[in-house]
Specification:
Helix content is 46%, strand content 18%. It is an alpha/beta fold.
Length: 342
């Protein structure tokens, strides 16, 4: 249990008010008594509650906005769980959090929602940003006007945000490439299902995988599918692909749309000849890890991304300082049928 002012007062046989004045050098305490109090505090390992102290100088409850691309993408449900968990733990500090959800990565839609949140007089925003010039300009304008920004899951260049919280996309692609290479024994006909080549960080995951697969001359990338993180598009495109190209034996899902793609495989009864590689532990992936259709999935810790993002933004607003780390990279955990989280 953390040491409190009450504990120090009891050890020093003085009042809590005396301890508070001594530790904060407010005067009115005999110098020898003040020195004794500070020595006892150090001996007990007392650490001042900097959050509580900062809140005392913050006139109004802290208002935070969250804009996240969660509609139709179960990965972001876990991110939101992490955000809500952090919000609950900080409930006693009186923060208000408004969450807005959008589908996909349309810059105009995101820009519209950014402005709506901005106009609610928020102190800070968590966002999964689209790399778009107007979005970039609006975020920088907000930051210049004192609204702090934390990017969650997707980074954006040329924006003076407080922190990015998420995975290293290129590294995650390299990790996937190595798993595919070793588990297929270097022989495969591969299809890549991604959201859009226009989304830089998703493309980095594709490039990372490609860079490793170059070591395997008998692994051929036969087709790329852009499914826009949309389950319906993924379902229809994977179904089309598997009907037209019987050589495909490996599917690599780079981002969302995995549930729809797996549904297509099941409807075509292709489980025996196909192997699938994915990201994250969404329900459909867990089911097919158990069955063996999904060989491995790479978990990028969505819950942690959400929780760390909210805590980082909250503490940054209180301290009025940039976090010690500008890029907070979550670990990549490889999951198979034996170590999945149920």
């Amino acid at each position: 249990m953390p040491v409190t002012i009450k504990d120090i007062a009891k050890a020093a046989n003085v009042s809590r008010g005396t301890v508070d004045r001594a530790l904060n050098d407010r005067g009115g305490v005999n110098p020898d008594v003040a020195a004794q109090i500070k020595a006892i505090a150090a001996e007990l390992g007392y650490k001042p509650n900097t959050i509580a102290k900062a809140l005392a100088t913050h006139a109004n409850p802290i208002r935070l906005g969250v804009l996240i691309n969660s509609l139709g993408n179960p990965f972001f449900d876990k991110v939101l769980d992490g955000i809500r968990h952090a919000q609950e733990n900080l409930r006693d500090f009186g923060i208000n959090v408004e969450i807005r959800k959008i589908r996909g990565y349309d810059p105009q839609r995101q820009l519209h929602e950014i402005k709506l949140l901005r106009d609610t007089d928020i102190d800070g925003m968590i966002i999964t940003p689209v790399s778009d010039e107007k979005v970039r300009s609006e975020l920088n304008s907000m930051i210049r006007n004192g609204i702090q920004v934390v990017c969650c899951n997707m980074d954006i260049d040329d924006v003076n945000y407080q922190a990015y919280v998420g995975c290293d996309y290129y590294c995650s692609g390299q990790t996937a490439g190595e798993i595919i290479g070793t588990t297929t024994h270097g022989e495969a006909n591969l299809a890549v299902i991604t959201s859009s080549h226009a989304l830089y960080y998703h493309e980095m995951r594709v490039k990372g995988c490609e860079s490793v697969l170059q070591q395997y001359p008998n692994i051929h990338i036969c087709e790329y599918i852009e499914a826009g993180d949309d389950e319906d598009i993924s379902y229809h495109e994977v179904k089309r692909l598997l009907k037209q190209n019987k050589k495909i034996d490996i599917l690599y899902f780079v981002t969302g749309g995995t549930t729809g793609g797996l549904q297509a495989i099941h409807e075509l009864d292709q489980e025996e000849r196909l192997k699938v590689y994915t990201f994250d532990q969404i329900p459909a992936v867990i089911d097919d890890l158990k069955s063996g259709l999904v060989v491995a999935t790479i978990d990028q810790q969505p819950f942690a991304q959400g929780e760390i993002s909210l805590r980082t933004l909250f503490e940054s607003i209180l301290s009025r300082q940039t976090p010690a780390r500008k890029r907070i990279i979550t670990e990549l955990n490889i999951k198979n049928r034996y170590n999945i989280s149920y």
